[in-house]
């Protein structure tokens, strides 16, 4: 392990595997999740969802439901409309129905809500709401949706005459065409990154407590972005922002699912306002899977222009995304396909051109970045699958092909053909180290021998580069809000501290790692620092935790505010030591005059003096706040090697080994970093092997519960072997790059490449995800060798 | 119906609807919210408690079926002597991230160790295969359960494989 520690374990700064502060409550069942909150007089809400994918609503009869003993209110779109709340804006500038008034546009869409004194009563009464639907044909693929004469799904939207949600294009089309025209070889790959769902084990929920006398709205919400949600609530509902307090308590996993604002939150809030009592809504699992933010669903065709010796000259991509009924992607507003244009990956070549269209279909909206920095997962998958395809087509070893095309360490900062400036990296070293750990040459020899005996084994490689930590205010905003973040640090007289941050943990361990950053910068032991997050009345503004932005942006803000505090403490120490501030040095936990470390002032002494004994003219107290606008994104990367054995008779494949090398820059807490990688690799394995959501021709969601939507258990999940290199980010205050999503981004291509590699000699070039055994079997059967 | 369930060593008597799920009785009746709900189909396991020492998905048992029985939830793991070894091990080995699956995982782990004082990696994985975790990739959960077995004085803590 690379040692980046500078503090002793008692202080627990950067590089220490400090045990997590949040564990104490969670291991004793004392966590505080949204569903654990019970307020006096609290009512319970259940949603009525559409059973069909596309239909006109003729009428809604709420009489039977209203008559049930214990039912307090039945809310329909008509009632919401009377308050101007039947529709709400999405994070991508579209509008979305809160409760349907005209049509339902996907199965599971919210149509009405029942508020009752008991959750069982609310659920019973919801069954009694009668909706008269006039059926319309369901459009279930983007290809159908964009075909001539397709019924317009968004007929309510002014100026919308077809089902096109957006078009987007970037790169240099002419130069790319020229490169393709002159290329020795062109390889192409058409694949579908299927619809998936983040499905954290805790579903979405809210306890809305609106005081009708004071107008104060306290919303306990499963929110990955509480501050942004507060502002959006103010804008949508017209509530004064100072009267809105969002509290995001313990969150049972997010993975992007808890970034959007969902109809259930809005209806519960409106119901609480109208009734004058707190209202709780907690989604069912089916509700979560069929209506909230899905991920992926991109049909992609990628092409590489290459020279005969395998040097890439250009890349061309054409894509079609299935947006569902509303364009509700959570992503920076100027990028319609997120940061997909990072798809040139880890390779050095001159030209790229990317075109993308998005189509409305009769499916749930969402398009969240599922454990991903805005479509980077799809981008990384495409280039890494294309590299495998090119290797197979050109007959060059896939590791060698990558080594021939890598951006070299001395080329950083490196500007890609689509305008990203990669901060730092040493790709060849990373790949070589991963190959060596896997025993690559021996594996290739074994594979050749196995093929002789009719056995199938495959070795898959992926080398990904991510772009995370959005982002610089000049380029990145969501719904107009710049993607900055903040930290406020207060050091009390006894030297104990409270750090308040704009980002929000959902299991990543911010209460521990952010304290470690402060410990590193100030010398206050991490255990003496309480980290507060998630309560908008008690924390400074920030855009929240997703897209691996906590450490790159919130972590940077934390380091910067801690530096301000350390600097003030140094001035106080100078006063106490009767020396000039510029003569004061600091080691891990104390200040002293340069050259005489025997006489020192601890950070705790300085903290006490900040309230008791200050130099002339200095303001009392030891606290500050920093808003951090990152100068650039950060670019973590990794090299993954997967070894699989494939049963030629059944197509069943098993992971024999998974070697994962990650370089996320400086690791604040190695234990937590490794935990993040384990989790990410598992989600990558899930998507490549079993986890997807499909629909039948009528738009019925297949994958609406955990019996149909398969999440790997401990039994299926492979064991992982982790490696690292450390290449600090040159522009991040502590050199960290972010790690939460790397493994989900990078690993699917490695798994798929491994299976394809096992059957490549038979002529197979592609198997779409999830790589189900029947797909493998069919690929073998129909291979044209 | 009148029922009495012994939860974590204390008898709780209540009048419950016959259809009330045990998990709801534990969470809202007894006010013990460490037991969670994560699905509608008995698939996720975050609601697991021990009934007479055996892991049971409490979303799939009626409260009335627990009448006269002994239920252990996460709140019952700690004793006067301190944390249960499984709790300590989950914290030491980073066996939890969001913590939503954790109470159930610890109870299943504790029950496994009772039965099998030195479980192998595969035995632990099989034992927890009714419990999903979305965060950890299971590596450190397996490690935690085996470390708890070792700490209880029985296990080999993974040194053998
Ligand atoms: S709540 Fe999912 S199994 Fe019980
Ligand atoms: S720790 Fe989050 S689900 Fe297991």
What does this molecule look like?
The complex is a heterodimer of chains A (785) and B (161). Helix content of chain A is 28%, strand content 24%. With 785 residues, chain A is of the alpha+beta class. Chain A has 3 domains: 153 residues, Aldehyde oxidase/xanthine dehydrogenase, molybdopterin binding domain (Aldehyde Oxidoreductase, domain 4); 186 residues, Aldehyde oxidase/xanthine dehydrogenase, a/b hammerhead (Aldehyde Oxidoreductase, domain 3); 324 residues, Aldehyde Oxidoreductase, domain 4 (2-Layer Sandwich). In chain A, the strands form 10 sheets. Chain A has a 7-stranded mixed β-sheet with strand order 3-7-1-14-11-12-13. Chain A has a 5-stranded mixed β-sheet with strand order 9-17-16-15-10, with helices on both faces. In chain A, strands 20-30-31-34 form a 4-stranded mixed β-sheet. Chain A starts with 22 loop residues before the first helix and ends with a helix. The model of chain A has no long low-confidence stretch (mean pLDDT 96). In chain B, helix 2 packs across helix 5 and helix 3 crosses helix 5. By secondary structure, chain B is an alpha+beta fold. Chain B has 2 domains: 73 residues, Beta-grasp domain (Ubiquitin-like (UB roll)); 67 residues, [2Fe-2S]-binding domain (DNA polymerase, domain 1, Orthogonal Bundle). The longest helix of chain B has 14 residues. Classes of the chains: A alpha+beta (785), B alpha+beta (161). At the A-B interface, helix 1 and helix 17 of A face helix 1, helix 2, helix 3, helix 4 and helix 5 of B. The structure holds FE2/S2 (inorganic) cluster (FES) (2 copies). The site of one FE2/S2 (inorganic) cluster has 11 residues of chain B, from loops.
């Amino acid at each position: 392990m690379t040692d980046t520690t500078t503090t002793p374990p008692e202080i627990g700064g950067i590089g220490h595997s400090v045990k997590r502060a949040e564990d104490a409550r969670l291991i004793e069942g004392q966590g505080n999740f949204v569903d654990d909150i019970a307020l006096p007089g609290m009512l319970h809400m259940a949603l009525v969802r559409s059973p069909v994918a596309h239909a006109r609503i003729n009428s809604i009869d709420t009489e039977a439901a209203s008559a049930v003993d214990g039912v307090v209110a039945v809310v329909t779109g008509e009632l919401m409309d009377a308050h101007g709340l039947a529709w709400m804006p999405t994070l991508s500038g579209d509008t979305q129905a809160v409760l349907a008034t005209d049509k339902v546009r996907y199965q599971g869409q919210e149509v009405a809500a029942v508020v009752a004194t008991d959750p069982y009563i609310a659920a019973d009464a919801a069954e009694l709401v009668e909706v008269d639907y006039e059926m319309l044909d369901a459009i279930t693929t983007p290809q159908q949706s964009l075909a001539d004469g397709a019924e317009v799904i968004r007929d309510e939207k002014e100026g919308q005459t077809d089902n096109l949600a957006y078009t987007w294009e970037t790169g240099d089309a002419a130069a790319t065409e020229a490169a393709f025209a002159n290329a020795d070889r062109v390889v192409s790959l058409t694949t579908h990154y299927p619809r998936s769902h983040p499905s954290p084990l805790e579903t979405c929920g809210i306890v809305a407590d609106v005081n009708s006398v004071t107008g104060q709205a306290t919303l306990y919400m499963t929110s990955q972005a509480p501050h942004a949600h507060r502002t959006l609530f103010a804008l949508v509902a017209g509530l004064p922002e100072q009267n809105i307090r969002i509290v995001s308590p313990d969150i049972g996993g997010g993975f992007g699912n808890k970034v959007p604002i969902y109809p259930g939150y809005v209806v519960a809030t409106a119901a609480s306002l109208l009734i004058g009592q707190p209202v709780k809504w907690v989604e069912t699992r089916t509700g979560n899977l069929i209506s909230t933010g899905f991920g992926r669903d991109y049909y992609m065709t990628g092409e590489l222009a290459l020279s005969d010796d395998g040097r890439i000259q250009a890349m061309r991509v054409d894509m079609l995304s299935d947006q569902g009924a509303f364009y509700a992607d959570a992503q920076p507003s100027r990028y319609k396909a997120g940061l997909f244009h990072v798809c040139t990956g880890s390779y050095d070549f001159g030209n790229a051109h990317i075109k993308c269209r998005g189509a409305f279909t009769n499916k749930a909206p969402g398009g969240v970045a599922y454990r991903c920095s805005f479509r980077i997962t799809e981008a990384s998958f495409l280039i890494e699958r294309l590299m495998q395809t090119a290797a197979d087509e050109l007959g060059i070893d896939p590791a060698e092909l990558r080594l021939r095309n890598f951006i070299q360490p001395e080329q950083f900062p490196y500007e890609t053909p689509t305008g990203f400036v990669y901060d730092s990296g040493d790709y060849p070293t990373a790949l070589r180290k991963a190959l060596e750990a896997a025993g690559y040459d021996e594996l290739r020899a074994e594979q050749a021998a196995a093929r002789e005996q009719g056995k199938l084994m495959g070795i898959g490689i992926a080398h990904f580069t991510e772009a995370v930590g959005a982002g610089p205010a000049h380029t990145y905003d969501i719904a107009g809000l710049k993607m900055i973040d903040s930290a406020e640090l207060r050091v009390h007289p006894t030297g104990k501290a409270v750090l308040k941050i704009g980002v929000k943990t959902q299991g990543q361990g911010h209460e521990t790692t952010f304290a470690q950053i402060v410990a590193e910068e100030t010398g206050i032991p991490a255990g003496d620092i309480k980290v507060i997050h998630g309560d908008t009345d008690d924390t400074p503004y920030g855009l929240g935790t997703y897209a691996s932005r906590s450490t790159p942006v919130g972590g940077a803000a934390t380091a910067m505010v801690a530096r301000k505090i350390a600097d003030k403490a140094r001035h106080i120490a100078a006063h106490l030591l009767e020396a000039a501030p510029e003569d004061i040095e600091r080691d891990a936990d104390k200040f002293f005059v340069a050259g005489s470390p025997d006489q020192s002032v601890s950070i705790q002494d300085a903290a006490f003096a900040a309230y008791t004994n200050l130099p002339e003219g200095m303001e009392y107290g030891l606290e500050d706040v920093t808003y951090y606008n990152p100068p650039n994104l950060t670019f973590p990367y990794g090299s993954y090697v997967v070894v699989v054995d494939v049963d030629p008779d059944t197509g069943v494949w098993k992971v024999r080994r998974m070697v994962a090398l990650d370089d996320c820059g400086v690791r604040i807490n190695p234990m937590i970093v490794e935990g993040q990688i384990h989790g990410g690799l598992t989600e990558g394995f899930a998507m490549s092997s079993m986890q997807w959501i499909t629909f039948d021709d009528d738009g019925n969601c297949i994958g609406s519960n955990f019996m149909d939507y398969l999440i790997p258990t401990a039994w299926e999940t492979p064991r992982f072997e982790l490696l690292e290199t450390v290449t600090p980010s040159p522009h991040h205050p502590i050199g960290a790059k972010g790690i939460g999503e790397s493994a989900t981004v990078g690993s699917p291509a490695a798994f798929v490449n491994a299976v394809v590699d096992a059957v490549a000699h038979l002529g197979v070039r592609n198997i779409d995800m999830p790589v189900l055994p029947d797909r493998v079997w069919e690929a073998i059967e129909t291979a044209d060798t | 119906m009148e029922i009495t369930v012994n939860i974590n060593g204390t008898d709780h008597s209540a009048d419950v609807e016959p259809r009330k799920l045990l998990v709801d009785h534990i969470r809202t009746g007894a006010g013990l919210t460490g037991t969670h709900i994560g699905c509608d189909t008995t698939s996720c396991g975050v609601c697991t408690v021990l009934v007479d020492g055996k892991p049971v998905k409490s979303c799939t048992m009626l409260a009335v079926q627990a009448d006269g029985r002994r239920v252990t939830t996460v709140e019952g793991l700690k004793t006067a002597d301190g944390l249960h070894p499984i709790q300590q091990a989950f914290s030491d080995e980073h066996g939890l991230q969001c913590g939503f699956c954790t109470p159930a995982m610890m109870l299943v782990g504790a029950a496994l160790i009772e039965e099998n004082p030195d479980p192998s990696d595969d035995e632990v994985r099989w034992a927890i295969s009714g419990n999903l975790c979305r965060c950890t990739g299971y590596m450190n959960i397996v490690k935690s359960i085996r470390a708890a077995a070792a700490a209880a004085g029985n296990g080999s803590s993974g040194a053998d494989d």
